[in-house]
Amino acid sequence: MPDFICPTCGRKMNRDLAIILPHTEEHIIDEIKKKHPDWVEANGICKMCYEHYKKMLHPS
Ligand SMILES: [Zn+2]
Predict the structure, then answer these.
(1) What is the dihedral of CA 9, 5, 15, 56, to 10 degrees?
(2) How many domains in the chain?
(3) pLDDT one-digit tens code per residue, 29-59
(4) Which of 16, 39, 45, 55 could bridge to 49 as Cys pair (CB 3.0-4.6 Å)?
């Protein structure tokens, strides 16, 4: 299984920790693109980054 390098945090990890964001998460996708203009959804992000952006947009 190929390694995955998260485009937003640069961490190297197992491919199965990568997340491809669904279109319903468009607000998160927009937020990531603001910080990483070269990033595209198909690149995916790691679980940690996903949780990070989710928390940022939906603070509990
Ligand atoms: Zn990451």
Answers:
(1) 10
(2) 1
(3) 999 999 999 999 999 999 999 999 999 998 8
(4) 45
